Amino acid sequence: xxxxxxxxxxxxxxxxxxxxxxxxxxxxxxxxxxxxxxxxxxxxxxxxxxxxxxxxxxxxxxxxxxxxxxxxxxxxxxxxxxxxxxxxxxxxxxxxxxxxxxxxxxxxxxxxxxxxxxxxxxxxxxxxxxxxxxxxxxxxxxxxxxxxxxxxxxxxxxxxxxxxxxxxxxxxxxxxxxxxxxxxxxxxxxxxxxxxxxxxxxxxxxxxxxxxxxxxxxxxxxxxxxxxxxxxxxxxxxxxxxxxxxxxxxxxxxxxxxxxxxxxxxxxxxxxxxxxxxxxxxxxxxxxxxxxxxxxxxxxxxxxxxxxxxxxxxxxxxxxxxxxxxxxxxxxxxxxxxxxxxxxxxxxxxxxxxxxxxxxxxxxxxxxxxxxxxxxxxxxxxxxxxxxxxxxxxxxxxxxxxxxxxxxx
Length: 409
Hints:
Layout: E1 2-3, H1 8-20, H2 27-37, H3 44-61, H4 69-94, H5 102-137, H6 145-148, E2 159-162, E3 166-172, E4 180-184, H7 190-201, E5 205-215, E6 220-223, H8 228-244, H9 248-257, H10 264-289, H11 309-325, H12 329-345, H13 355-361, H14 374-384, H15 388-396, H16 401-408
Parallel strand pairs: 1-5, 2-6
Antiparallel strand pairs: 3-4, 3-5, 5-6
């Protein structure tokens, strides 16, 4: 599952861009994509309004708060792990891959889902409390802190756990570039996804639909089926986007999202910084909640057979870039499908591997799907920083990759 970055500020500026900006893709392109996705579009602005009304109500009534935040979190995510396990067992029984009493498994699943539904709000508040405390312990409060020295957290940390939307990503076929994204409803089946992809591809583009692990809405919208560490990491990741939106770096990201001033390096810096801060803070919280536990860290890239996914994926990306640079589009696409099957044979299943896939996942420069050097550059800057607060303060003022390079000396 991937994270995503659409937020309320981005929605507002996107509307503004539509009204005042004549740049960008043709209206015919947007019209066709709009027609294709209309039955599946997720009404993000409506969701924001409805959820914020509920947040305001909880603020005044104290709704959802728990007397024991740690216990609330542990219970919720222990149940979530059992839910994932039961769902896997049910699917295996349905496919005749294992024996089991389907009715008993389904009843047990419904019971756990009901328990978690009743404690969802309390868990959200508990997660918010943990993230706030960890940020403040690192001296991270708000984007204006270095100017006015107000030790108040802003934006306030807010989390919403639920079934997250899907995302349609569109890239040209002759290069890897994310030229359009459309947020789609959560409850889509494979047939729906492939139908949309096929229709966009008939327009001459590369397309991919996939699920999201989190979105930088307000509150942050996070998948409720994930494990504890991923949820913590995602909550911090999305908050960092909200924080950065009030800084030079994040504001340029907002302009890019609105189509006013596009800059792929700015996107990559924002996403990679959010990833880095998310990982550091989530490790701190995880060890606090489960004393003595080893934080999961990055998933192992090498499986039991010695197959190195990261190495293979990095080579695939480099080869695809080379083919496309030479104008060999068909060869690049055939190669990606061959490599997708090769990865599946070695235990790594990717439903669709194409230009759109790399355009979306490549914005995270600390992953093998990216060809950007920004990940290594930011890692060096973090090493040079005496604290996470100092690192975030430095990157918040960046306006380009060139500015990043100057900071490195």
